[in-house]
Every structure is written in C-alpha cells, then in structure tokens.
Amino acid sequence: MKSELEHRSDQILPFKKFLLRVLKYFLFSIVLIAFSLGIGTVGYHHYANISWVDAFYNASLILTGMGPVDPMPTDNAKLFASFYALFSGIAFLSTVAVIFAPIAHRLLHILHVKEED
C-alpha cells in the first residue's frame, strides 16, 4: 500500500501541493470534530433531557476539555457524560495530531533532505 506522503528519498512537495494537503487534513479534522460534537449533543439531549442548545454547549465544553456545565440528573446521564469525556479526550488529541501531521512531516522531510546534502 502506497502512502500519500512522500518518501524521504523523494523531493519535497511543492508549496501549493503542501497547502492543499494541509487543507485536506484540516477538513478531515473538521469532520472529526463535527462527528464528535454530534455524538455529544445527541447524547446530552437524550440522557440529560436538556435543550439542544444546552446539549451542544455541554458537548463543546467537554470536547475542548473545559468541563461540563449542567449537572447530570440521572445515572444514565452521568455514565454518558463520563464515557463522552473519555472519548472527547482521545478525539481532541487525535484531531490535533491530524491537523499537525502534514506540517510535522514536511519539517522532518526538510531536515532529512538538508542532512543528506
């Protein structure tokens, strides 16, 4: 299986193509964030019986690591909030990694090419 990223023996990707790659990874990250927010919003609305706006607010704050706003009234709501918080930590870190992956790859590629010259 061929990787999308260039091998260390390949030339550095032209800057315009690099920007397109960064945009592609950024858009994928937006999809991950939207999916994660959707899970949280629906879950908080369903389990905690709060409005859609409050559910979105809680999901947004949990996803970014700020913490919950509304108290969870039932055990099911508390369990959902707990699992969503664990999921959110992984999702947020994964999203950051996806955003920075092409930048880190280019930097390492440049450093490796300079080392060979």
Automatic annotation (TrEMBL):
InterPro entries per UniProt: K_chnl_dom (IPR013099)
Domain Potassium channel: 33-100
Gene3D superfamilies assigned: 1.10.287.70
Transmembrane segments: 25-47, 81-104
Swiss-Prot/TrEMBL keywords: Membrane, Transmembrane, Transmembrane helix
Pfam families: Ion_trans_2
Protein origin, superkingdom: Bacteria
Listed name of the protein: Ion channel
Organism of this sequence: Psychroserpens luteus
Lineage: Bacteria, Pseudomonadati, Bacteroidota, Flavobacteriia, Flavobacteriales
